[in-house]
Write a structure and sequence with these properties.
The chain is mainly α. 73% of the residues lie in helices and 0% in strands. It contains 18 helices and no strands.
């Protein structure tokens, strides 16, 4: 009993030290309010996603539900900007209302998460090392944006949407305004509307660390995984700048997490969830379709095994597959149709040799 009390005492001091250290770094680099806004986004995402049923362990459920909620918020912001209602007051309502309605879920998120007292007590040194890496990433990603792609494409789309409250679709002005995969820009436009410009890159850094915890479910030795994950230079590059690679990986990881146990029953039950997360991933970056094709094939194979094992009628399984196909295209379907109407090419300027848009000869 005394050992348990001593363990809890050390855990509380470790938690307190971590919080104080994080706040000190956030204040020093002038990113405290940016982090608060991003945290509110994830809290709201969890509150929305917690409504949805997910098969898996407690931690898996929390991670996947948060990813679902984030995708739903991203789609909602897309439509807000599509109809020209992108204002800070609208965003505040969108973020705060789910938390107010389901604040008890936010409290339980801390109580049931994998960063429990047991994990802190067993791997306190590792988590302190991870915290140091996290703070380094946050500090580095708070630097001014200097990447070429960001200046020529990502920032113009973001800033126009933030300042005007709607998407710019004038492809005569710039080809980038014909972009149809806009999920990343929904969050960045919201951040920029509040004047939180450092949040554009901080969001990627935070997603990077959430991805780490999602990946850790595929491995037992998270120490080895951390050493591999954090020493790959391209991960550091993408997670500390205003590029689009981290967000689709986030949605992909959590979609795969939903059937990572290769349990056909869970794969079948989570098929709508997986379909939506795949759709959100594709809505962020079109080239992720190659990964979706491979992982989606594995998911469908598991579903086929389940239907065969439990003798699911073909018409019932077909109805669910069609329903999930609709869920898959739902996040980006309107964006594709709008882009198709405006440019003559739903994935403008990609594959223009087939769609023959007059605004771009071929790509």
């Amino acid at each position: 009993m005394e050992m348990l009390l001593e363990l809890n005492k050390r855990t509380k001091w470790l938690s307190l030290f971590s919080i104080v250290l994080m706040i000190a770094v956030f204040v020093y680099y002038n990113i405290l309010f940016d982090v608060i806004l991003i945290s509110l986004l994830f809290f709201s995402s969890f509150c929305i996603g917690s409504i949805l049923p997910v098969r898996g362990s407690i931690t898996q459920k929390k991670l996947i539900q948060t990813a679902m909620g984030l995708g739903i918020l991203g789609v909602a912001i897309y439509f807000i900007l599509l109809f020209g209602f992108g204002r800070t007051s609208i965003y505040i309502i969108l973020l705060v209302m789910p938390v107010l309605l389901r604040y008890k879920r936010v409290i339980s998120m801390h109580e049931q998460t994998f960063l429990s007292h047991r994990l802190l007590s067993k791997q306190g040194f590792f988590l302190l090392m991870l915290l140091a890496i996290f703070l380094f990433y946050m500090a580095y990603s708070s630097a001014p944006i200097r990447q070429y792609d960001a200046f020529t494409k990502h920032i113009p789309i973001t800033m126009y949407a933030a300042r005007n409250g709607k998407w710019n679709t004038n492809v005569i002005e710039s080809l980038v305004y014909g972009e149809s995969m806009l999920m990343q820009y929904t969050y960045s436009a919201m951040f920029a509307s509040f004047g939180m410009y450092k949040a554009l890159t901080l969001f990627n850094a935070i997603l990077f660390f959430i991805n780490f915890f999602a990946i850790s479910y595929f491995f037992r030795d998270i120490f080895l995984l951390a050493s591999l994950y954090f020493t790959v230079p391209i991960f550091f590059e993408f997670s500390t700048c205003f590029y689009l690679e981290v967000l689709p990986i986030y949605f992909l990881f959590h979609a795969i997490l939903a059937f990572s146990s290769l349990d056909s029953q869970k794969a079948w039950a989570n098929l709508p969830i997986i379909s939506f997360l795949f759709g959100c991933s594709l809505f962020t970056k079109l080239t992720v379709s190659y990964t979706i094709l491979v992982t989606g094939t594995i998911e469908l194979f598991l579903c086929a095994l389940y239907c065969k094992k439990y003798h699911i009628r073909p018409e019932k399984s077909l109805r669910k597959i069609l329903f999930c196909a609709i869920i898959f295209v739902a996040p980006f379907l309107v964006s594709l149709l709008v882009t198709w109407y405006q440019t003559g090419n739903p994935v403008f300027p990609m594959f223009n040799e087939y769609f023959k848009s007059p605004y771009f000869p071929a790509y």
